[in-house]
Amino acid sequence: MSRTLTEKVADRLRQNIAAGHWQPGATLPAERRLALELGVSRGSLRSAIAQLQAEGLLEARQGSGTKVRQDLAQAPMDWLSWILGSQELGSVETYDFIAQLVGLRRVVAVHLLQQAVARMQAEDLQHLQSLVADQALLLDDAPAYREADLAIEGFFLELAGNRVVPPLNSSLRRCFESRPELVAAFFGPLELHAEGNQMLLALVAESLDHPEHIELLMRTLNEGLRSFEELGLKRVKACLENS
Question: In terms of domains, do 210 and 225 share one?
Fold first, then answer.
């Protein structure tokens, strides 16, 4: 679907902020000058600025022009994908950024899995086993394998019945998708990832047989995810160093 001119102008404004060309608290160039620089009408520029104001990236004050918000922590989480996708971000900064996102994703994932497992029935386990088995057939097709991984993720999201995690999870996914080459590096050999899913299946099955062990099983899962992340982040670092 084609994007509107306002959306394209808004993208360029976000890129300037993400790249650090406009620092927090900086005043944007005068409207006429900025419109000329971007090659757009003042009306399109105003619409784009209004969009970024609604997102919490810009603020307008009477008599002082339009400024980048001093506290970008108030911006929506999708803003992180613009920072990560910025060509101005160095390899060390990118690695640190990815590592922090990965750590956050693990916390969210463990919380969600604990909720899902508590509600899981035998037929749910059978469905999960089917999803994992189908994914294992796609080891030679990385894009299809990752699509299958989203289906498994969706299974847990639906089963958990958590209304807060899905939008947060979607924002995290869009952050990672802004650097697909790093996602591929983090995943590593799909065979290893598939082995991890088999471990997850075993833990889930164990929790159904012995619900009194669920806390211990969640700790085991958390440790397994940490180990997977450490290896994945090493591959990300190597990818960044070689790029």
Answer: yes
* Average pLDDT, rounded, for the chain: 89
Do residues 32 and 112 share a domain?
no
pLDDT tens-digit map of 56-67:
889 987 777 899
Domain containing 41: what range?
5-72
Contact between residue 13 and residue 52 where contact means Cβ atoms under 8 Å apart: yes
| d(C-alpha 35, C-alpha 9), whole Å | 10
Q: Are both 84 and 170 inside the same structural domain?
A: yes
Q: What is the pTM of this model?
A: 0.75
Distance CA 128, CA 203 (A): 12
- List, for residues 202-219, the tens digit of each pLDDT value: 989 998 888 888 888 889
The residue among 125, 144, 121, 120 whose CA lies nearest residue 134 is: 144
pLDDT, tens digit, 9 for 90 and up, residues 168-215: 888 888 888 889 999 999 989 999 999 999 999 998 999 888 888 888
